[in-house]
Write a structure and sequence with these properties.
The structure is a single chain. Helix content is about 50%, strand content about 5%. It has 18 helices and 7 strands. The chain has helices spanning about 5-30, 50-60, 70-75, 75-85, 100-110, 140-145, 145-155, 155-170, 175-180, 205, 210-220, 235-250, 265-275, 280-295, 310-315, 325-340, 350-360, 365-370, and strands spanning about 45, 65, 90, 115-120, 190, 260, 300-305. Helix 5 (about 100-110) runs parallel beside helix 12 (about 235-250) and helix 12 (about 235-250) runs parallel beside helix 14. The relative contact order is 0.12.
């Protein structure tokens, strides 16, 4: 046998051994807990929700799903459970579209939870590529089909995480390994599900204050950037996507109660549209009216609208920008849901939208800047 052929055989054998090693460690440790809840090794979790949710759906026990965008992502599951008396699973996805959210909920609903709590932003209903065309979303891993499982088991980066998770599970090594395996080199750095994408309470003063909210307002209304506020003008597209993703999911699960809520953006979000793109604001209002009326057609829906709760939305110290509110407001939202406050009634589906319109019409930014 000549030397080039020997070298090729050695290379192929080495590659095969590496693949076998990766498959073995990934299957045994199972960093995402795709195959089984963690038993042999201490579970660790990632803040990459698009990846981590695929494992949480399989490994956690829950009776309630909590979905949303970045406005829902920083809720703590323990708070949801305590205030609402449920066993929840937070699946919120930062910057997500309705297509992504509906896909994840559909997979989780296969485990027959009793309830879905869904934070819905106005802008999630947009045309986006098919879920399988999104390179950042591991759709096949959620499906647990051959492609998804093979990609998971053969993933070298996942094998590295698995090695460190196994090492951290050895008590004498745990303190040292924990210090060595922080971000950004490793994804799985959290020991508790409750800590996934949850702020510490001491972040509030630094992140949430009127100065940051006003700075964000000035940024998005700057003439150079305000064109991005035109993104919500296609009413027909938003209705079509809403019907496909939200209504399609609701109709497919008639026995599951959905609590859907519209979050309390700061008043500055609406005033920014009023002052820079009134046609966009009118389109958003029109879609919102359709959204509220359409959801009243379903007996398994409770809709809550928190957008006109002025004691929150006009207090800019509650915000880090024009839409993202503090953990203290998270608790208020949960309390409102528990009490049934600001629920949209079938007899007056646009009541709170009309209140919002009135507030936006008379609000003066200069008063807030004093």
């Amino acid at each position: 046998m000549n030397k080039p052929l020997q070298d090729l055989i050695r290379f192929l054998c080495t590659a095969l051994l590496v693949m076998v090693a990766a498959v073995t460690i990934n299957f045994v440790v199972d960093p995402l807990q795709i195959f089984r809840p963690a038993r042999l090794f201490t579970p660790m979790y990632s803040e990459d929700s698009r990846l981590q949710d695929a494992g949480l759906i399989r490994s956690q026990e829950y009776d309630t799903l909590f979905m949303g965008t970045s406005l829902a992502m920083h809720f703590r599951q323990s708070d949801v459970d305590r205030v609402l008396g449920v066993k929840s699973l937070k699946l919120a996805l930062n910057g997500s579209s309705s297509r992504e959210q509906a896909f994840v909920l559909d997979v989780a609903l296969a485990r027959h939870p009793n309830r879905v709590i869904w934070e819905v932003d106005d802008w999630i209903f947009h045309d986006t590529p098919e879920i399988d065309a999104d390179v950042y979303f591991p759709a096949n891993l959620y499906r647990r089909n051959a492609t998804g499982i093979a990609g998971y088991l053969l993933n070298g980066a996942m094998a590295r995480e698995a090695v460190w998770i196994a090492a951290r599970s050895i008590p004498p090594l745990e303190p040292v390994i924990t210090r060595l395996t922080g971000e950004p080199l490793f994804k799985f750095t959290l020991a508790k599900v409750d800590d996934i994408n949850a702020h510490r309470s001491d972040d509030d003063n630094a992140m949430y204050n009127a100065g940051r909210a006003m700075a964000a307002f000035r940024f998005i209304t700057d003439p150079v950037r305000r064109k991005f506020l035109l993104d919500d003008t296609d009413y027909a597209m938003k209705v079509r996507v809403f019907e496909r993703d939200a209504i399609g999911l609701i109709q497919a699960n008639p026995d599951v109660p959905f609590d859907i809520y519209l979050p309390p953006y700061s008043i500055l979000q609406w005033v920014a549209l009023r002052d820079t793109s009134p046609q966009t604001l009118e389109s958003v209002y029109a879609f919102s009216a359709y959204f509220c009326r359409r959801l009243m057609d379903f007996s398994n829906i409770r809709l809550f609208d928190f957008r006109a709760v002025s004691e929150v939305t006009h207090d800019l110290n509650n915000y880090s920008d024009v839409i993202h509110h503090s953990p203290a407001i998270n608790l208020k939202v949960l309390g409102w849901l528990a009490e049934g406050k600001y629920r949209v009634e079938r007899a007056a589906p646009t009541r709170y939208l009309d209140e919002l319109k009135s507030q936006v019409e008379v609000y003066r930014v200069e008063d807030a800047e004093r």
